[in-house]
Every structure is written in C-alpha cells, then in structure tokens.
C-alpha cells in the first residue's frame, strides 16, 4: 500500500474550508484506496486508469464526506471522473441500503451540448457494470419534447443538462429537484460567460436544503464567486440565507511542481504564408500524430479543408453549424483515429476582453431570449462589434463550444492557424493537448501588424491585433511558468512550394467554400435519423440530392498537387526547414547525396540511350525540360 503525502498541495489561506482540507492531504497512488464500489473499480481497471490524478485523489474523499467543494485544476486533469465516481458510488450504496423510490439524485450542469454528451458517455463507461442500478439521462439532445418528458418521467438518478434546458424542464414541472443530493457545475467559470446567469437564478430556488455543491473549474475567476453565491446563498424557499462556503481545492501548487509537458511555439508569417506553412507541415509530416487546427470561423474551416484536400491531405471539420449529433460523431471519429487532422472553427471562443465580461454577458443574454438551437447571432460580442462583416446571422448553435471541456484523445499538437482573440481562449485551446500527463505541442501562426491586410484573398479581420494578443498570451503563460518560444522556421527553404500554393489557393474560391459548407450540411441532414426515414419513403428525393452533390465540383482538383516531387523538397530535408527539436528530420544529408548520385546516374544513362538512338542529347533534354514546365 503506497501512499504519498503531498503537503505542497496548500489550500490558499484566504479561503474558508471545511475540516478535511485543513488536515495533511494524502495523494493515494491507487483507486482501491478510495474505497469505491467494486463495480466502479472494475470499470476503472477496464479504462486502464492506474493512479488517480491529483484532483481525483483530493476531491473524491471530500465529496464522499459530504462537503461542498470548488475544485480548480487545469484542463485535462481528470475533473469529470473526480465528481462522477463519488456520485455514482453514493447512489449505488444508497440503493443497496434503502428501498427508496427513484428520484433525481444528481444534476450535472455543463455549458455546452458537446460537453453534456461527453459527460454522458463517461458516465456510461463507468456504470457499465452496474446494470439497471443506476440511470443517467442527457436532456440536451435535440429531440421531441415528448421524448425528453418521457425520459424525465422515469426519474433518472443522474441528469446531465445545460442550465438553459434545466430551467425549461424545471419550469414545466417535468424535472423535480426536491430529492437532489448533488449539484455539479462542470466548467463553472464558463457557465456565466455563456449567459446562463438568469438560468442559475431560476434553478437555485428549486434546489432542496442540504444539497451538496460540486463546482469544477479551470480558473478561480470572479465568475466562479458569483456562481457560488448564486447557488449557495439561498435556502430552499429561495430567500437569501447565510452563504455556505465550499472547500476550495486549488491544485496550482501541484501543477507548478509538475514538469511542463506542453511545448509552445509561435511563428510570425504573412497571411498567405499560413497556408504555405500548413501545407509544408502536413506534407512533410513535420508534426506527427493527431492535430487540432483552430481557425477563426466556419468559412475558414472549409477553405482550409478544401485547400488541404488538393494536396491529398484529409481532414474533418467541426463547427457550430453542424448538428450536435454530427459534432459528437466527428469528435468520436477523431478520437478513434479515423482522421488525424481536425479543423475546428472556434468561432464561439471563451470570449470577452481580458478585463471583464460585462459586454459578453449582455450579448449572451440577448441570445438567451432566442429559442435554443435556432438561428442566432455569433456570440463573439467583441469580434462582431469590431468587424461588422462578421455580424451576419447564421445557423449556429449557442451551446457550441470546442475549446473548452471536450475530451479530444491523444492530440499531439494544437495548431492555432488563426490566433484566438484572448489569452483565455488560447489557454483553453492548448488544453486540448498534453492531457492526462501526456506530452503535447502548441503552435500558433501570428500575423505581424506590418503584414496584416497585405494579401487580401487570405486576410481575415480577426488577425488585426495578433501581436497584441500574443503579448497577453505570453504574459499569462509566463505567470503560469510556461514559455512561448519562437519557432525557427526557415521560410526561404519553402520557395519551391510557393507556386503550388498560389495554384491551390486560386482554386478555393468563395463559391467553392459555400458549396462545401452546404454539401456538408446536406450530408448531415441526410444522415439524421428522422430524415433517413423520410428518404426511405421518398428515394427519388435522396437520389436528386445526391446527384446535385455529384454535379457540384466545389474545387477543380489538380492531381499533380497531391504529389511532392523530390526536386521541390528543400535540400537538407525537414531538418533544414526547422531547427526545432519538436520535429523529426526526414532525410539526412548523407541520404541526400545518395539521391543526387542516383539522379546523376539516371540522367547519364538517358544521355547514353539518346546517343544510341542517334539523338542529340542536349536537344532532347531541353525539350523534356520545357515539356515539364
Ligand atoms: N486517473 C486517470 N488516469 C489516466 N487517465 C485519466 C485519469 N482520469 C482521467 N483520465 C483521462 O484524462 C482525460 C481528461 O479527463 P477530463 O476530461 O475529465 O479532464 P478535465 O479536467 O475535465 O478537462 P477539461 O477541463 O478540459 O474538461 C480523459 O481522456 C480521461 O479519460
């Protein structure tokens, strides 16, 4: 039995907390020490989780002890399991000892639908050995109200929802919270930023006295204080009472002691060079493994996808326009390794200026008034205000969120093709890699002021203040003990690729992007369960739709672009392009000499052949050379 004392896990002195946290905290090296239900431990073993992460080791005993907690731990530190395991354990134990009628024992509030479906799937994984002893329902799915009502009528033990959906169903009387034991707010710092303040105010009076609050957050920003006071300063009748103080678990000290596993780089480049760089990175495999490429908006998503497609580089796309089921499906496919490159439009960043979020909140409240899942303005208050062109209304989903909370597995690199607007958003984007103790890399393309608006076809307004944003990012990362380094990339070595870049960029026209966007949506609609039935009954309509897609050649494909001929490769191979250690050299100089020697031999034998045929070798070579051009 090996237990490790971790006295450096200090609870900040300014924070009030319960008895448990003031005693020395022990980090157990084994899940078995947490004394959880055997069925849960079996599931943990099956997931191949050997050791609880710090937040799990600390939070699980406190939750089991009945304390309100507010846990702050970095993204990817295993917060979901930290609250799910003790909750499931409690419900299983209670059911064993008491003959109680089914009721909702735990409500898990999350800011986005994607996160709701991810938490649900984690819940399912960890209850797989519990049979029908415990039931969880995700009520954020887009489905008939009747279906949701029916699912809630069966009184699931655990309900996973956004605050918006919770308010709706509580108000309609379909979701009873009077027997609630646990209220979890996952990504607590984000919930108010998403404009859910009013919903939280509505939910608070419905909570019974004595419920236990579990708040999970990546930061301890003022929003979290506000949320805590909204939830914990009311009694069951909704009137104000003395505020309960949750025990605060701040894992910063522990995290600071960890060896950083994330390397961060930036490369300053011109607007069109972003495309050149990404082409080179993928074509020469400068980055190996799974990569999430973040871009500024949905159009950019398809533009980049179409651009890469021309070089035979396959990718999948994730954006707020896609139906939530499709988004979950994309994440699953990416996690399974069907795709190695995922292009995500982070157009609903965890936005707000660095100073505050009042403006954002206003935007979000306006959004709140709209029905969920229907046409809505972009939530990026700041960006839309600065760039009227981005103001257009479109079918995106206000509960969409990529850079926060979603668990992309084994991502080796987060590539900020477009830098986010805030350092906060940057932190959350890079949190998609180097998760659960793994190593990772973040690479960001930055447009210097003097290069902004210099290449109209690839210019976007979001990049106007890249340098200012980068300064803030560097400052924030330095505060957290991390460095953002300059990536030593030798652009001169890529000259040979430039004409291909121009060729490919020309093909990705605005019409092509629009077509690709529409086609993807059509495909998703065809695949949606309801329409599937419709098309089964009306096969002609489906045929018509498919024919339309076949006829739509969004981008004129240029087969020659798929292949990178040797003569285009920089001499010295990949190593010559970048001196950075994050990259693996592709061809050594020695090998290059062999290649050159082979090429020389080949041309000599061509010369001999031509001589044998009575041709003037110089002339024939010239003709061949011109033909190639
Ligand atoms: N004890 C553990 N051992 C190994 N892997 C773990 C452990 N706990 C969680 N993980 C894995 O770590 C990843 C991150 O977990 P999780 O999504 O819960 O983190 P998080 O802190 O909630 O992150 P975020 O704030 O980004 O949502 C998941 O893939 C999860 O399966």
From TrEMBL:
It is an enzyme of class 3 (hydrolase). Coiled coil: none annotated. It catalyses: ATP + H2O = ADP + phosphate + H(+). GO terms for cellular component: cytosol; nucleus. Pfam families: DEAD, Helicase_C. Residues 29-57 form the DEAD-box RNA helicase Q domain. It is found in: Nucleus. Residues 261-492 form the Helicase C-terminal domain. Residues 1-22, 354-398, 595-629 are annotated as: Disordered. This is RNA helicase. It comes from Polychaeton citri CBS 116435.
């Amino acid at each position: 039995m090996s237990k490790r004392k971790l006295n450096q896990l200090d609870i900040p002195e300014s924070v009030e907390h319960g008895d448990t946290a003031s005693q020395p905290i022990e980090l157990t090296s084994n899940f078995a020490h947490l004394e959880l239900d055997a069925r849960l431990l079996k599931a943990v073993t099956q997931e191949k989780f050997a050791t609880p992460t710090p937040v799990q080791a600390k939070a699980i005993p406190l939750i089991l002890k009945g304390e309100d907690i507010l846990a702050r731990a970095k993204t990817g530190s295993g917060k979901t399991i930290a609250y799910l395991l003790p909750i499931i354990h409690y419900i299983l134990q209670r059911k064993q000892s008491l003959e109680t009628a089914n009721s909702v024992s735990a409500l898990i509030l999350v800011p986005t639908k994607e996160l709701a479906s991810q938490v649900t799937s984690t819940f399912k994984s960890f209850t797989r050995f519990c049979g029908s002893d415990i039931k969880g329902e995700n009520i954020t799915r887009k489905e008939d109200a009747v279906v949701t009502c029916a699912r809630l009528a069966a009184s699931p033990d655990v309900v996973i929802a956004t605050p918006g959906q919770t308010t709706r169903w509580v108000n309609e009387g379909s979701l009873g919270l009077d027997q609630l034991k646990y209220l979890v707010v996952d990504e607590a710092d984000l919930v108010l930023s998403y404009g859910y303040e009013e919903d939280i105010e509505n939910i608070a009076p419905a909570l019974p006295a004595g419920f236990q609050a579990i708040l999970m957050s990546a930061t301890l920003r003022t929003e979290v204080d506000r949320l805590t006071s909204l939830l914990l300063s009311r009694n069951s009748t909704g009137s104000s009472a003395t505020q309960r103080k949750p025990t605060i678990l701040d894992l910063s000290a522990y995290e600071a002691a960890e060896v950083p596993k994330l390397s961060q780089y930036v490369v300053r480049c011109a607007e069109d060079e972003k495309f050149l760089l990404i082409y080179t990175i993928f074509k020469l495999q400068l980055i190996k493994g799974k990569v999430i490429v973040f871009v500024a908006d949905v159009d950019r998503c398809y533009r980049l996808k179409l651009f890469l497609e021309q070089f035979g580089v396959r990718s999948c796309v994730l954006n707020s326009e896609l139906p939530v089921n499709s988004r979950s499906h994309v994440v699953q496919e990416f996690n399974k390794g069907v795709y190695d490159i995922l292009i995500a439009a982070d157009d609903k960043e965890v936005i707000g200026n660095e100073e505050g979020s009042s403006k954002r909140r206003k935007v979000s409240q306006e959004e709140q008034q709209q029905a969920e899942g229907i046409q809505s303005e972009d939530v990026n208050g700041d960006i839309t205000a600065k760039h009227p062109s981005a103001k257009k209304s479109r079918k995106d989903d206000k509960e969409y969120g990529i850079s926060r909370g979603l668990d992309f597995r084994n991502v080796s690199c987060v590539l900020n093709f477009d830098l986010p607007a805030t350092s906060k958003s940057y932190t959350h984007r890079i949190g998609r890699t180097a998760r659960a103790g793994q190593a990772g890399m973040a690479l960001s393309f930055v447009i210097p002021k003097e290069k902004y608006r210099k290449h109209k076809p690839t210019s976007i307004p979001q990049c106007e203040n890249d340098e200012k944003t980068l300064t803030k990012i560097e400052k924030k990362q330095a505060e957290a003990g991390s460095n953002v380094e300059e990536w030593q990339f030798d652009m001169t070595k890529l000259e040979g690729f430039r004409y291909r870049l121009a060729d490919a960029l020309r093909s990705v026209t605005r019409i092509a992007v629009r077509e690709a966007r529409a086609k993807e949506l059509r495909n998703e609609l065809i695949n949606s369960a309801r329409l599937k039935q419709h098309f089964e009954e009306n096969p002609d309509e489906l045929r018509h739709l498919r024919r339309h897609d076949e006829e739509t050649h969004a981008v004129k494909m240029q087969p020659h672009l798929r292949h990178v001929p040797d003569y285009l490769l920089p001499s010295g191979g990949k190593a010559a392009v970048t001196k950075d250690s994050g990259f693996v050299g592709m061809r050594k100089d020695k090998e290059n000499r062999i290649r050159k020697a082979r090429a020389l031999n080949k041309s000599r034998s061509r010369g001999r052949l031509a001589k044998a045929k009575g041709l003037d070798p110089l002339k024939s070579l010239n003709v061949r050379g011109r033909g190639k051009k």
